[in-house]
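User: Write out your own:

AI:
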Amino acid sequence: MTPPELLLSALGTCAGYYAVQYLKARSLSADGLEIRVTADKALQPARLAQFRIEVTVPALDPAHEAGILRAVKACLIHHTLLHAPAIETVLRTVQTVG
């Protein structure tokens, strides 16, 4: 997988985990749960933009539909992408013996 695919996979896995936890806590079946994450590519600087998380579940009442959406939006990766962290880049060199 490419690094961007891994990022989308991390977001989708996190969303799915939170959706399953929501369903389990309410004794609802997770059978048929599907998560699909896509993103558009933007330029200058090159990056992924406009993420879309599609959550597919068997028919639920509207309260549970809203609950799953809240759960998915509570995902750690989702919050990390919404509130960009500071990133420090450090170069280390190692002397080789020989």
Remarks:
- The radius of gyration is 18 Å.
- Residues 3-82 form a domain with the GMP Synthetase; Chain A, domain 3 fold (CATH 3.30.300.20).
- The chain has a mean pLDDT of 95.
- DSSP finds three helices and two strands in the chain.
